[in-house]
Amino acid sequence: MLLTNLLATLAVFASAVTAAVATPHHRRDSSKKCKPDKPKNQRKAWHTLSNKEKKAYIDAELCLMSKPATLGLPGATNRFEELQSIHQASGAIIHNVGGFLPYHRYYLYAHEKLLQDECGYKGMQPWWDETRDAGHYSTSVVLDPVTGFGGDGSGPNGCITTGPFASFVNNIGPGYWFGPNCINRYVNDSVSVMAGQAYIDFCRQKQTFAEFWPCFERCPHRSGHGAIGGKLLDAVASPGDPLFYLHHAWLDKLWWEWQELNLGVRLTEIGGVNVSPPRGTPPPPGSVSPNAPEVAPAPSAFPPSDSLNPDLASPYQKPAGDPGNITTLNHVLNMGGIIPNATIAGVMDIRGSGLLCYEYA
Ligand SMILES: [Cu+2]
């Protein structure tokens, strides 16, 4: 519930924002033929990668972290933090809204593209098969100190001390703050139960996007954020833990699998609000699993409450492209210059008819 409440709090601030910003439309490079059946376009599960493939991905992430920032985005000192900065700066309008899934789909693509274009990464964005690890994240291969992302945090701030990112100094967060901080984690196996198949099936049987997205954003979205805790549970600075991208790739895969159940409708089906209702407003009927456990992360895993102050003057906190508060296919996905902005219409299909071309293996 804490994460939900946190996001709802952010939505209160966002509700003051209504202005729209004109943004260019991104066109696909037609010189590149999309062949999603080619292995090079396959996003694979982390546990199926060879150690060499795992190392290539982690090395590319470390490369992004070592490249100086170029775009002047708030707080960012390197390319990895520029992506994180955009998520933080847009925090109030990309969660608890109809654009939640498309935004994060395009955001993952931006990350994948940076790894490939700037750090020579030859692979695709891997995903974390969290269902496989449901109830026992603490023993997941993603947390391996040698071949993975390092393990649980320890000490007063829960900083991670093992793995390739143990010494990474992150300058974004907690919350809307900036300043040097570590990647911290408070791994909680009981929260990770929410990644289980029963929770996924509960949302998967929703018939409309309007019912699907809030169900999905609650569980299984909360599983990874809540069960890893710390940086990853930070509503706006969470992309500071590289596990963010594996968690959201899994969610993107699950959304695509739901779309695939009825592509004729679900390649264009969008909805929801651009600015979510104030905190305390009950969720839509049927959107919450009756069996959903309460999320109870360690209190220190949470950013201080006075860090929850989005910059409302920021263009990134203003929804754009829709005629009103209902999310449409024209809704703009603003990537702050990291990659060109897109509309939701451009990311509904991952098979090459729009901007994206990949498949999940
Ligand atoms: Cu997010």
Detailed description of the structure:
This protein has ten helices and eight strands. The protein has 361 residues and is mostly helical. It has a single domain (2-360), classed as Di-copper center containing domain from catechol oxidase (di-copper center containing domain from catechol oxidase, Orthogonal Bundle). The chain has a two-stranded parallel ribbon with strand order 1-8. Strands 2-3 form a two-stranded antiparallel sheet. A hairpin with a 5-residue loop joins strand 4 and strand 5 (178-181). Helix 6 runs antiparallel to helix 7 (209-218). The longest helix has 20 residues, at 100-119. Copper (II) ion is lined by residues 87, 94-95, 104. Residues 87, 94-95, 104 line the site of copper (II) ion. Keywords: Copper, Metal-binding, Signal. Residues 24-46, 273-323 are annotated as: Disordered.
Give a brief outline of the structure:
By secondary structure, the chain is mainly alpha-helical.
What's the CATH architecture?
Answer: Orthogonal Bundle
The helix-and-strand class reads mainly alpha
Shape estimate: globular
CATH class: Mainly Alpha
Main sheet: strand order: 1-8
Number of strands: 8
Measured between the Cα atoms of the first and last residue, the distance is: 32 Å
Largest sheet: 2 strands, parallel
Order of helices and strands: HEHHHHEEEEHHHHHEEE
The CATH fourth-level homologous superfamily: Di-copper center containing domain from catechol oxidase
How many structural domains are formed by the residues? 1
Mean pLDDT: 85
Helix content: 25-40%
Gyration radius, in Å:
19 Å
Per DSSP, what share of the residues sits in E-state strands of 2 or more residues? 5-15%
Q: Helix count, per DSSP?
A: 10
Low-confidence stretches: 1-31, 281-307
CATH names the topology as: di-copper center containing domain from catechol oxidase
Bound molecules: copper (II) ion
